[in-house]
Write a structure and sequence with these properties.
This protein is an alpha/beta fold and 187 residues long. The chain is 47% helix and 16% strand. The chain is built from eight helices and six strands; from the N terminus they run H-H-E-H-E-H-H-E-H-E-H-E-H-E. A six-stranded parallel beta sheet has the order 1-2-3-4-5-6. Helix 3 packs parallel to helix 5. It is globular, with a radius of gyration of 17 Å. The relative contact order is 0.10.
Length: 187
Amino acid sequence: GKFIPLFERNRFIVKLDFYIMDQVCIKIKQWRNYYKDLLISVNMSRVHLKDPQFAEKLYSICASHNVSPSNIEIEITESAAYESLETLVTVFRELKEYGFNISIDDFGSGYSSLNMLKDLPADVLKIDRAFLAETDSNKRANDILGHVIRMASSLGMHTICEGIETDEQAKLLGGLGCEMAQGSYFA
């Protein structure tokens, strides 16, 4: 929460993200004989959205390591849509054309737009932990979470819920149809 905004302001995040992408490709190459359907998620800063060659650069990194983009899921936060939904749609389409999987990260952390979901060709909707904050005692919050999960599924998107800390939360999500979950409850 502290160094990423600084790195975005001084644009060091661009070098860091491309370095991480390079390292992910190295790992995929090392592991692909052991893990047949390997998929690694890589967070990318919204700063990249201003670069018209962003998708091409990511593809070039994969090509330089002989790694298929289908082994990589690019995660971009939903807040990137606030700057320019049109730009985000263009970048997502370019990433899809190169064969990358795409995840909308932190959905629900800001002013989520259902309109945004209809336009973005994403594979995964990562539901922010904020949705879980009130589910223990709030039926309405549970109903909203269930509707978001079903809506994502009807759009052909997989769902991951972040921030699972208790067995009750894990059971709730399973009952609501959430396919995957991550959080300190698991590791």
